[in-house]
Amino acid sequence: MSVTVRQSEALRHQTRVGVSLSAVIVVAWLAIHVTGIFFWRWSPDVIPLAIVMVIVQTWLSTGLFIVAHDSMHGALAPDRPRLNRAIGATCLSLYACLSYASLLPQHHLHHKETGRAGDPDFHGGDPSLGGWFLQFFKTYYSHGQIIRITVVALIYTLLLGAPLGNIVVFWALPALGAVAQLFVFGTWLPHRESETPFADAHRAHSIDVGPIVSLLTCFHFGGYHHEHHLSPGTPWWGLPSRRRALAVRAADRRVVEDQA
Questions:
Q1: Which pTM value belongs to this model?
Q2: Which is it for the CA torsion 28, 34, 37, 39, positive or negative?
Q3: Which DSSP string do the residues of 34-99 spell out, in sequence order?
């Protein structure tokens, strides 16, 4: 099998896995979204279940953003660019009416200017958790987005009869929780200055947690953030394997250097 054929098959495999996992995340998110907003009836005995649903929906909302993030790097469906973009834009719209066209250049600028003045994810002179988060929030949330959210909420309440409280609990709270999750585990912890110096010009740390915690916190964009900057074309689900591959390469180089 030629190198070109192997590469094509690898891209097709990446697309199949990426699209399949994206479908699972989107369907699960929609199931909670529709059930919680349109069919949920409150009583004291359902409050514990509602709390669980909000926690799960927060994690799934983070997943929607991560799927869109893979799309921005062409890593979601690498051999199907139109599908790749369509899924990414859909996930951002579902998550919080975000604009894919607006976020795409900002995120690529983050990779180009990581940890420097031109980086839209950088703290803007205030490295504290609160100051940096405010900068992050202002970068990614716009008046246009608020207008779109308001229009959707009005359609839900006025035309479809959804209780406003359900919209707040099952859409607004998970979306805000996901913002915090994405910022803390996907931006602040990986890119803040610490006692451990950055390994290279990517100025990114990988948080020292196991793969399960890494998945639960930010779909591997905390535990494997440095690997993502080294290989932006690797999808979220492939980052643990990428770390292992990079470790093997480093070991092979050391062997060659020792033998030289």
A1: 0.94
A2: negative
A3: HIIIII----GGGHHHHHHHHHHHHHHHHHHHHHHHHHHTT-SSTT-HHHHHHHHHHHHHHHH---
Nearest residue to 244 (alpha-carbon basis) of 258, 259, 231: 231
Domain ranges of the chain: 3-200
Reading phi first (left if > 0) and then psi (alpha if -120 to 50, else beta), residue 208 is in: beta
Other residues' Cβ atoms within 10 Å of the Cβ of residue 83 = 15
CA distance 36 to 46: 11
pLDDT at 60: 98
The DSSP string of 145-188 is HHHHHHHHHHIIIIIT---HHHHIIIIIHHHHHHHHHHHIIIII
Q: Please say if the pLDDT value at position 258 is more than 70.
A: no
Half-sphere exposure of 142 (CA within 13 A, CB side): 11
How far apart are alpha carbons 21 and 15 in whole angstroms?
10
